[in-house]
Amino acid sequence: MTVKAYGTRGSSPVSRSETSRYGGNTTCYRAASPCIPAGTALVVDGGSGLVPASRDLLREGRRDLHVLMTHYHHDHTQGLPLAPHTHARDARVCVVGPREHGVGPREMLECLMKAPYFPVDFPRVANRFDCREIDPIGREVLLVHPVEGFHLVRVDEFEHLRSGGSVSAVPFTRASLDECLVVWMYKALHPEYTVSYRFEERPTGKVLVILTDHENTDSVPEGLRAHVDRADLLIQDAQFTRGEYEAGKAGFGHGTGDYAARVFLETDARRLGHTHHDPLHDDADVDAVVAEARDWLAAHGAADRADRVFAVADYQEMDV
Ligand SMILES: [Zn+2]
Ligand SMILES: [Zn+2]
Hints:
- The chain is α/β, with parallel strands linked by helices.
- The protein has a single domain, classed as 4-Layer Sandwich (Metallo-beta-lactamase, Chain A), CATH 3.60.15.10.
- It has helices at residues 50-59, 74-77, 84-87, 105-112, 155-162, 174-177, 222-228, 242-249, 257-266, 283-299, and strands at 2-7, 28-32, 40-44, 64-68, 92-98, 129-134, 140-145, 149-154, 181-187, 195-201, 206-211, 233-237, 272-275, 309-311, 317-319.
- The strands form two sheets. An eight-stranded mixed β-sheet has the order 8-7-9-10-11-12-13-14. A seven-stranded mixed β-sheet has the order 6-5-4-3-2-1-15, covered by helices on one side.
- It is globular and about 50 Å long.
- One zinc ion is lined by residues 71, 73, 190, 213, 253.
């Protein structure tokens, strides 16, 4: 499994010479795996990075796009109206996300794509869209199989399949489950109902966790610990320095480098990539957040892990 960052900035896109190393697109990650069917692509979030991601995916011949939404804040949706897949006649887009305040993926798209905010009303493209709600987070698991495609099933159905049973309308056996990319969901700590995704590539055992728009807590809650447990790559929100956080950014729904380091250490994850970089941060400030994470690890007897922490840059491709 590999993951390519197309957008690592939080809150708003940026463009200035001092941010050129990490980039300025808002959140979008593309996960690639042999478990994903041919002609299909899987991305997390539709921030401004979705526009170049969609262009690349169409060039690869991947006309069937699945977008897993963490939540619907502007920095995670603003690429959807302008992504080439949204307007290509032979493309298909499946948008998966939570429902809150009466808004699921379909209502979000209807809101984004209408006058006076956008010249193309969503109903004009809706016949190529498939909108699926996750509700509630943690009760379902997404199975991705190279032949059978994408299926959202309840966790109890998944456990039944895993124990050798069968579930009507779900084309999996215990053996074919082991050919899947299994996507688990966890509710992040953020002002809106926000999903973190854990991708388990069962044929290789590799694990990727994307945990963005997640605020610090005083400890690592048990549910989060299980969700991140031994991830090969943890991509986590580290928008602020500790000083900024304590000087007024606490409660905004974002985290610090030292807290990300704590989650990384306590879950025995293998690598930690910071994401959701603050739009006011220059590259040197993003590096300072990484330095705080490394200092925290050194102060907690884990200096040997310091070089496994980095800040993710736009267009960086990572092996999981
Ligand atoms: Zn955000
Ligand atoms: Zn947010």
